[in-house]
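About this split. The held-out portion is used to measure sequence recovery: a designer receives only the structure tokens and must propose an amino acid at every position. Recovery is the fraction of positions where the proposal matches the reference. Here is one held-out target exactly as it appears in the evaluation file.
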């Protein structure tokens, strides 16, 4: 089975089986704070093509930094639980089904951060579809806490975290296959359930 066929089958089954949970989460978000249920944002996809990513909204609908630092005061009660359980990522199954994302692949970045990629790594990382999970996500699962310790979180992200994640993602893009993806999906589920 090819990676894309697996993505289609798994995301379709996931959306069907998780529909009740998705509806409950949507209702809680709506009751917890004013604003839309879904958070939409432009990210950079395969071959550098922009696309709209979908997540459950976990913050109050107000302007602020693009990065989340520690116990960000914008995070709602529902949002904190959704972030802790990673359920805020579930709407991305729709992005996988429609082909702008994969279950496993480098996490899609904002255009302004992609502009910082060195040319060779940019080409490699953007040669595959972005994913819901990847090795860099697992390695930096406590990214918000890490950034909270920095004097300048934005600078820390640009100069330390982003280059490290980029190197991991570039390595994944070179050796990605279905077997690797299955191992990463199992590792991701194990981390979520362990929490």
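Reference sequence for scoring:
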């Amino acid at each position: 089975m090819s990676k894309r066929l697996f993505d289609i089958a798994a995301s379709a089954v996931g959306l069907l089986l998780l529909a009740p949970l998705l509806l409950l989460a949507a209702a809680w978000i709506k009751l917890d704070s004013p604003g839309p249920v879904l958070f939409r944002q432009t990210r950079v996809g395969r071959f550098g093509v922009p696309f709209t990513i979908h997540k459950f909204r976990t913050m109050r609908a107000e302007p602020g930094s693009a990065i989340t630092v520690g116990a960000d005061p914008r995070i709602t009660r529902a949002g904190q639980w959704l972030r802790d359980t990673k359920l805020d990522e579930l709407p991305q199954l729709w992005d996988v089904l429609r082909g702008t994302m994969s279950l496993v692949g480098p996490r899609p970045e904002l255009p302004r951060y992609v502009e910082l990629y060195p040319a060779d790594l940019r080409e490699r990382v953007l040669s595959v579809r972005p994913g819901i999970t990847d090795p860099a996500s697992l390695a930096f699962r406590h990214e918000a806490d890490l950034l909270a310790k920095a004097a300048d979180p934005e600078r820390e992200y640009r100069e330390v975290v982003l280059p490290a994640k980029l190197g991991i993602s570039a390595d994944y893009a070179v050796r990605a296959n279905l077997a690797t993806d299955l191992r990463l999906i199992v590792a991701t589920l194990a981390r979520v359930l362990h929490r």
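Annotator remark: The chain is about 55% helix and 10% strand.
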